[in-house]
Amino acid sequence: MKLLVPILIAPATAGLACLLVRSRRVMAALGICAFLTTLAMGVRLLREVLAHGAISECYEFFHADALSAWMVLLISTVSLGTSLYAGRYFQRDLAAKIITPGRMREFFVLTPFFAAGMFLVVLSNSLGVMWAAVEATALSSVLLVAIYNRKTSLEAAWKYVILGSLGLGLALLGTVYVYAAACKNQSERLPSFNWSHLMTVADQLDPGLIKLAFVLALVGYGTKAGLAPMHSWLPDAHSEAPSPTSAMLSGVSLKVALYALLRFHILATACLDSAFSRSLLLYRLWAVLYVPRSAVHFGAAQPQTDACLFKPRTRGSDLHRHCDEHIRHHLRRVVAHGLSCTDEASFVHGCRKY
Amino acid sequence: MTAPVELGSQLITLMAALMLVVQLFMVVQQMLLTNIRLFAIQSLFLAGIATVIGYAHHATHVYVLAVLTLLGKVLLLPRLLTRLVRRINIIQEIEPLLNAPTSMLLCGGLTLLGYLVARPFTSLERLGNNTLAIAMTLVLTGFFLMFNRRKAITQVLALLTVENGVMLAAVALTTYGMPLVVELGIFFDVMVAVMISGILVYRIRESFASMDTSKLTQLKG
Question: Rounded to whole angstroms, how far apart are CA atoms A224 and A308?
Answer without folding.
Answer: 13
